[in-house]
Amino acid sequence: MAVQIENLGQLDRKVTLEFARADLAKAREARLVKLGKTMKMAGFRPGKVPKNIVEKQYGMQVDFELQFDKASELFYELAQKEKIALAGQPRLEPKSELEADTIVFDALFEVLPEVKIGDFSKAEVTKYLTEIADPEIDRAIDVLRKQQVHYHPRGEAGHHGDGGANTAAQAGDQVVIDFVGKIDGVEFAGGKAENFEYVLGEGRMLPEFEAATLGLKAGESKTFPLAFPADYHGKDVAGKTAEFTITVKSVNWPHLPAVDDAFALSMGVTEGGVAKMRAEVKENLDREVKRRITSLLKNEVMEKLNSLCELDVPKSLVASEQERLVESARQDLMQRGIPNAKDAPIPAEMFAEQATKRVRLGLILGDLVKQQNLAATADQIKTEIDEQAATYEDPKEVVRWFYSNPSRLKDIENLVLEDNVIKYFTSLAKVTDKAISFEELSKLN
Length: 445
Prior knowledge:
The chain is α+β, with helices and mostly antiparallel strands. The strands form three sheets. Strands 6, 7, 8, 9 and 10 form a five-stranded antiparallel beta sheet that branches. It is extended. Helix 6 crosses helix 11, helix 7 crosses helix 8 and helix 9 packs across helix 10. Strand 1 and strand 2 form a beta hairpin. Helices cover 45% and strands 20% of the residues. It has three domains: 106 residues, Trigger factor ribosome-binding domain (Alpha-Beta Plaits, 2-Layer Sandwich), CATH 3.30.70; 107 residues, Chitinase A, domain 3; 171 residues, Trigger factor, domain 2 (Orthogonal Bundle), CATH 1.10.3120.
């Protein structure tokens, strides 16, 4: 029977499916017999319920299920025969009664769009260049040193010295204090603590609090006003001014480990000392530079692809992507321990723009990969896995970990595919190299 596919505009299509109810008779009988074998009813042994009762209980349900199954089967046979590029699942709408001799369904569906690839030679992108030199290595090692910082009481002689003649609290010092805050002469909740410890300059406390502590010595006290910001997280005190009194219990100066072979050993460098440690730090920084530069270039290329290519976006794919983003957001809330995150209302509409952009890019990439043969090869996937595994202590185990899970392999395949697209795009576009420092690179998103 010939079928007419109706064009409802853009990507929406409709086809009417018809079949005889009699064609389902054998399947209907078999389904009812199967249900009858497990049906339980008072006064009858299991499997011995009369056929007319089984029919009365399940007849309409079986008709409904079989007719939808048949309509779905006919639709996908048609889609395969006509080589319809489906964008998603069809929506099947029954147009006849369950008992009708001829069953009629409308199948409404979307097709994948035609992607009009733009002229990449008109695009301009920036590729950042960053060299890692001694200053960057020194700064990275300073970060590692600060991770091993320990404190000594100011003025007390010890193995690492006494911290100097000035025993007053200075920036970078760890202080231990008692404090009490009052508003209109009355203490308020959360405004009092004993043996409270923090490091000056880390920004953990409000600026007025830190300013009042600076310059005080152990045993000294100070009273000062503190105006809470209007948007302060403590609603009871937000926008109000309190009077705090602090008493310094101890002032401790920071001691950073010397950059020597012992420090290198503490960083896991068993041979080669400081020189080897610096080489490994540079290797890690180079790897980070490569990752950031690749990420920035990828983001810019994807933006250009999105703007240079034209296509209609299937609503069904956007809806599916919104659902996926909602579920991802819910999982994130659950992992962060948010109460009732599983049932938290997360409107799909808030992800509409993001979902649309992702679907657009996915369709553009898919079309481009197909047209230009940019799919990831097995050798490329192996190379990427080997490069990632090399950063771990046991590369062979990491390689095995990747190849033991199809979803992990798929992630690597997608990564390589994106790299192939970027290389193809930049081979045609105008690429401007721009040298920037590591610090500048770190600030770019």
